[in-house]
């Protein structure tokens, strides 16, 4: 049974823009489906849902080619009875939407090389119909630019979700695998944004999750994999590197031990016996107390390649996370810099990884902060497959209580020029495989959904999931366009609704940053759950997340004169980041130790800027509330009320951030706010 108020996000076909339904109905009275092998059952189901909910009648499907009238024509490119001229080459997952007139008949054609391509095209076609696009002007050829488009779920088998802020797991409960209507709806939801790979369990593999690759779970997983396959999605699993010990009774997990190699080969064969289309493994090793090859004196390449050898005969992949560092750092040691760890460990191994291994790299060198520099590893691994890891779930960015649209951040990351091969060596050109010529690159997002009726708790957080899929398909897409399309599909095309929500989303990241930790500062959160202000929460911990504030300065010197982190970048970034006067101010405190009286480009001191931003951030949240209030009556009452409550909580918590952080610095320095606003002594 679905929870009360259950929704389907942007797939709620009863919500629509201002369109002429009577005119549209003429196109859908006769849907011609060329499906000789029944590959398009899900396409048929989706169109049936759409036409029924959107136009109010059950569509009929035929295999006979019509001679007159208006029709939707669907099938693989090779099966269509109508010639389709393409302006560009079609890839395996690409699709075509095209208007064709032939004598007395008019067709809107949905086609592709594969069933997955046709499905993606169907979702795109439905979106365009819903926003009122003129079907006679359709002429679209769309290919995904990134091969591997992952969602990573950090779900545990007991139903909890690590860093989950929208309820419990939709995959697991009480150590059992769930398969229900919600599972199918999830699959529809992510297929509609082009996701083709899913890891369903937490990268920290412990307790019952160790046994997911045992027959007791594999039979049920095979059913889930079959469902995924119908929507063009491959199932991946996170596994423990120490599985040969936990499950195989061995006394070692040494990747060069022949017994370990043999055990993994037998285990992989068993998995594929149950799940022939299994995607492969996601591995978190030698990090945060997870076992890995380092404990046996082996390299990360040794560990990854051992698993890759077992998977290679079946076409499986090893996704190996680069989140590897010494998490027992001594805060007294000023030489060790956690930011350097990924590059220091993986750069010397470039070219040593098997072709079916991809290194999954967090976007920044630390851990999903609201502002970090792009990891230098993207410019350093020219001979290795790479996957960009983003965090859709808002661990450090408001935990789906605060409005924090992440698409603007992701776009900056994708557009970052590493200069590894001169100008235009963008991160997006690395992960789409064109810059280095690698074949198994991709993008991964840590998912933000749970079993809440609206999937993401904060209704506007749905925009982050939508945007991730859209940028994964095409990282060159304009974020403003992505946002506007999501709003129209979710709330309709009322001009004020589109304008206000667009403004709120597109400005929300900078607003959140301003009242929390601006200038690349980061980490001033409560330990463990990472929510709420705590200026020294991690300052003396072993996690390496220090700002080292005293009475006169703040920040870590990561220049060539400090920890040397800037030396991991290509020029001109190395010189830019090294120079306090050239360093982008939004990253100033990440790269430099800066006196509070340092004059910034606007003529104000660093500390006055910190004071001002925290006050201004709260004012911006108040503005968001006013903009949302203007939409009352234009958005259904349930969602209006839910978002209003979230914004009110955000304001309350933003005030707490403002007062705690400003008071912290005032007490540290004794320097007053020039504008005389209330700061607590």
From TrEMBL:
<dbReference type="InterPro" id="IPR029018">
    <property type="entry name" value="Hex-like_dom2"/>
</dbReference>
<dbReference type="GO" id="GO:2000886">
    <property type="term" value="P:glucuronoxylan catabolic process"/>
</dbReference>
<dbReference type="InterPro" id="IPR037054">
    <property type="entry name" value="A-glucoronidase_C_sf"/>
</dbReference>
<dbReference type="InterPro" id="IPR011100">
    <property type="entry name" value="Glyco_hydro_67_cat"/>
</dbReference>
<dbReference type="InterPro" id="IPR011395">
    <property type="entry name" value="Glyco_hydro_67_aGlcAse"/>
</dbReference>
<feature type="domain" description="Alpha glucuronidase N-terminal">
    <location>
        <begin position="9"/>
        <end position="125"/>
    </location>
</feature>
<dbReference type="Pfam" id="PF03648">
    <property type="entry name" value="Glyco_hydro_67N"/>
</dbReference>
<dbReference type="Pfam" id="PF07488">
    <property type="entry name" value="Glyco_hydro_67M"/>
</dbReference>
<protein>
    <recommendedName>
        <fullName>Xylan alpha-1,2-glucuronidase</fullName>
        <ecNumber>3.2.1.131</ecNumber>
    </recommendedName>
</protein>
<keyword id="KW-0624">Polysaccharide degradation</keyword>
<feature type="active site" description="Proton donor">
    <location>
        <position position="288"/>
    </location>
</feature>
<dbReference type="GO" id="GO:0046559">
    <property type="term" value="F:alpha-glucuronidase activity"/>
</dbReference>
<keyword id="KW-0378">Hydrolase</keyword>
<keyword id="KW-0858">Xylan degradation</keyword>
<dbReference type="GO" id="GO:0005576">
    <property type="term" value="C:extracellular region"/>
</dbReference>
<dbReference type="Pfam" id="PF07477">
    <property type="entry name" value="Glyco_hydro_67C"/>
</dbReference>
<dbReference type="InterPro" id="IPR005154">
    <property type="entry name" value="Glyco_hydro_67_aGlcAse_N"/>
</dbReference>
<feature type="active site" description="Proton acceptor">
    <location>
        <position position="367"/>
    </location>
</feature>
<keyword id="KW-0119">Carbohydrate metabolism</keyword>
<feature type="domain" description="Glycosyl hydrolase family 67 catalytic">
    <location>
        <begin position="130"/>
        <end position="455"/>
    </location>
</feature>
<comment type="subunit">
    <text>Homodimer.</text>
</comment>
<feature type="active site" description="Proton acceptor">
    <location>
        <position position="395"/>
    </location>
</feature>
<feature type="domain" description="Glycosyl hydrolase family 67 C-terminal">
    <location>
        <begin position="456"/>
        <end position="677"/>
    </location>
</feature>
<dbReference type="InterPro" id="IPR017853">
    <property type="entry name" value="GH"/>
</dbReference>
<dbReference type="InterPro" id="IPR011099">
    <property type="entry name" value="Glyco_hydro_67_C"/>
</dbReference>
<dbReference type="GO" id="GO:0033939">
    <property type="term" value="F:xylan alpha-1,2-glucuronosidase activity"/>
</dbReference>
<keyword id="KW-0326">Glycosidase</keyword>
<comment type="similarity">
    <text>Belongs to the glycosyl hydrolase 67 family.</text>
</comment>
